[in-house]
Fold this protein.
Amino acid sequence: MPAYPCIKCGAPVDTGGDGVCKKCHEHKPFKCTKCERAMDLFSVYAPEKLTFHKPIYCQKCGPTTELVDCRQCGVSLTRSNAVEVQIQGEQAFYHPECYSRQTRVFRTVRALAVCAGILVCGYVGYMLSHNWPVALVLSLPGIPLGMLLARPFAPH
């Protein structure tokens, strides 16, 4: 947990605690990065993000200061209005419309890719064995193959 210096005495205030300075007992030890207003932990915008982001903002300044780009269309939007997706330790942001559109595309492509994988693997299995039960068993690897082929269309 990062510690922020108390605005009254400068002692480190642990963000995982109750938000009160242990040295001078200041109840508003935090300072907004934008407007420099003193605030307690409950007035911090998105306190759960304090472990990742060093600048802190008050409720008034927070949502409008964090501009992010939509991963789909590239147009800027505020972080509070975005759909946030966690991808391998990285965060991606989408307009809600862009995210739902990309999710629909991904679901459609995934279904088509799985069907194509099953058909191709089943056809190859039938050509190798000329036996339908064997072809059905050999078509099963087409499911993960289709999922793998559809992965680039996932919203990320």
User: Anything to note?
Assistant: The mean pLDDT is 82. The first strand starts at residue 3 and ends at 5. The chain has two domains: 1-63, 102-153. DSSP finds four helices and eight strands in the chain.
